[in-house]
Fold:
Amino acid sequence: MSTDTATASPMNLDTELDRLREAYVARHPESRARLQAAAEVMPGGNTRSVLFYEPFPLAIARGEGARLWDADGHGYTDFIGEFTAGLYGHSHPLIRDAIDAALDGGINLTGHNLLEAELARLVTQRFPSLERLRFTNSGTEANLLAITAARHFTGRRKVLVFKGAYHGGVLTFAGGPSPVNVPFPFVIGTYNDIEGTTALVKEHAADLAAIVVEPMQGAGGCIVGQPDFLHALHRLASEAGALLVFDEVMTSRLAPGGRQAVLGIRPDLTTLGKYIGGGMSFGAFGGRADVMAQFDPRTPGHLGHAGTFNNNVLTMSAGIAGLSRIYTPEVAQALNARGDALRERLNASCRAHGLALQFTGLGSLMNLHGTGVAIRNVDDIPTAEGIVKDLFFFHMLEQGFYLARRGFIVLSLPITDADIERFHAAVEAFLRRFGPGLPR
Structure:
């Protein structure tokens, strides 16, 4: 990886970071105590790895709209939005009404209910490539089922993925395969590398079942898939007789029909998750009718797909309200235009201060990086940028903004224009405060 942020400077960033951490510890004794108590019953006091950070994570007590409060009583404007699942904020009245209505009708109905087909129809109308779909409880499950469907349909074993990808807790490729990954025979390519990917597809074509790709790598740092690369994957999959799987768990929110609609690509399968369940546990996979027919229980030899909560009424009801009444195509376009405008302002500020920093991404999703070099894949991300992101994270907490430690920023619907102005001012303060030590 590149190391272009390792430059001499008059400011000692390590010392500055120590000061920020010390102030953080002093302000959050209750969060620290909560983690210590939790560690008595959970390893590290944690049950979701992405939420843990040193010296200890905030214990979040409650949320309302776009606001969060921690156990020590500090308030924050939420600029992470449950890692894109919290699109509607923490207390949208229409979502609340939908959940209340579902509760009134009984929670676990042990049968086909009256809501699942309605949500399925809304999803297929929004994403036409999903000719048929099935629900799951998470994006992880959706990707597991999509890969399984592709392997069974093609009669092949191998799956092409890309370094830096995250397709779920057991399908993560930040620096290659993870020890907790499912044991599928993965082939790992380089994102946005058409020539290298073409060679891999040709090498493995005879046993290649699927190419699985995020149109923008989210957990990898909001690295945008270049249109020519994604179109090439569509062509390569077709030529090899493999299925193209678009993981739009995050990117589906970026346009009314997801990133695939903007690109004009119709993948064979698509996976969804996050916000579509209205903030409840949600996932879905779907695509070509002939591929999804493998799961038709009326067909001899069909593939089984169980899951007690696949069609749970809370998710179905909240999802219907969200797609039909709140996140309309017009609202989706407006939110992502706001995100594009904010990202452009932030990058203009970085340039104005003469700093080699940038915010990558699309629409309502963006990520800070400690380099001015164009980022086409994770190998372009500097190894030394961690301290930049840590400084940014603790600085923004001090300023009253909650975001991801890795510099990931998400806009949700209840964020106001005033919130965005304050956020931009906080970033400007960061650039002024630490500019002498930041990369140039």
